[in-house]
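Tokens for DUF3298 domain-containing protein. Go.
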Amino acid sequence: MPKRLAIKLFAALMALVALQGCDRQAPPQADTSETHTTVGKLTSKRVTFERQAQDCTPDEECSSVSVTRELIERQPALNKAVLNQLLLQLQSDGESHSATQSLEEIAAEFLTEAAEVERVSSAHWQLNGDAERLARRGDLLTMEIKTYRYTGGAHGIPVVEWFNWDLSAEKRVSLPQVLREGTEPKFWELAEAAHRRWQDEQTGIDDAYRETWQFQRSEDFRFNDDGIVLLYGVYVLGPYALGPVQLTVPWPELQTVVREQYLPHSQ
């Protein structure tokens, strides 16, 4: 082999070895799509939507619609999901509605119906809504979505929804998702025990009351310093006058039931 050719082959071989050495020394790059990023402080603003019956003057008591929302900055998916839930609650009149209805459409339909009823009734219909932050533990944010619908009679119907949202994953979180696999039956046993404790704390509850207002499951929940709190609307665990009911399953009973990341020491 000619000397000049041998030198060229040797140089190429050494360059290849050096390149392979560099590849071995380079650290592998992390897959950033799998990295959990904690969301920092949230900022927000409140916006209000209001409509009144046609030809209503400032001095009159008229049928009306009023909805106030807390919009969380840089959280478009959350704001959209909360609005969708609010729209569903505002239409909770026992009839089917299009999921694409807007606040403007809901208000127009409600006030049109109210105007027809006012021809034979003095009742002024009211439709109110409110969505705001209630609590936060780590990246789990709880929004409270409240609506009130009055269409005559002794009182209106309030509806309250606790809406849990994972700020990092940008998705809604349901109660089964915060429980360890296979522990849901145990959780409901604990919740039923919490219901019995709550009944024991009330005055005027007898066997007939316990038989009428038996334990029910609820999908509305949130975490606080005491444990998991379940929310029940009116007419679920008691008469209207009792109002919404909250049951608390304490943390000491939840250590083997709730997923690790939601336990107090993980916050």
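The helical segments are 3-25, 76-90, 103-117, 175-178, 184-201, 207-212.
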